[in-house]
Description:
Number of helices: 11
Pfam families: NB-ARC (PF00931)
Helix content: 40-55%
CATH superfamily of the largest domain: P-loop containing nucleotide triphosphate hydrolases
Protein name: NB-ARC domain-containing protein
Radius of gyration: 22 Å
CATH topology of the largest domain: Rossmann fold
CATH architecture of the largest domain: 3-Layer(aba) Sandwich
Strand content: 5-15%
Shape: elongated
GO molecular function: ADP binding
InterPro entries: Apaf_helical, Disease_R_plants, NB-ARC, P-loop_NTPase
Amino acid sequence: MGGVGLVDHVYKIVKVNFDTAAWVTVAKSYQVKDLLKKIVRELGISVDTSNMDMRVVVGVIRNHLQGKIFILVLDDVWEDDVWIKIVDVFPTNCISRFVLTSQNYEVASLATSNCEIKVEPLGEGHTWELFCKVAFRSSDDKGCPSDLHDLAVKFLQKCEGLPIATACIGRLLSCKPRSYIAWNNVYELEMQSTKNVIPGVDAILKVSLEDLSFYLKSCFLHCALFPEDSAM
């Protein structure tokens, strides 16, 4: 469940109850040393780790957390060995909470018994509510016009209850004229551009990409040159 907004929302609420807190996104092709340096930065430790040996970095983290109540979120973890490789870095004589978000069940299974939470797709009612809130955000009642209802349902069937896909297609349609012809053109574009794409998030994101102007596509592709999780 990497990147789940629910976790981010809860984190912002509960982190005030801890002496220190950090949210770290784990790159798919991560290096342990780089991950630990990122943890140092997110913990707000004022040291330059650029030329530090990994053992020194470990010492910095341990010294900083010693005797503190802390929470660490490792977001979008792809491999179950991430936690295994860094767990010994953290002091054991502290009150601590670790949260791992992942799309990989093997990672989720590392959680203590009864602490594993599987995020299910949204139900039809909540999916519709989210879609209308985004697609008709400029309307006072956030309601879907009757002539667009059936087409909206078709879009949502392709979102498969995934919040990010639902919000993405909603934002795209919110920028279009509120007419059957305009919305149907987007739907037809989806049919053409996603024939060989896995349904769900990837398909919806591809439609949004195809709808961009030439200049924005160039900008988007330029951003894709940056390594995963790098600051831009």
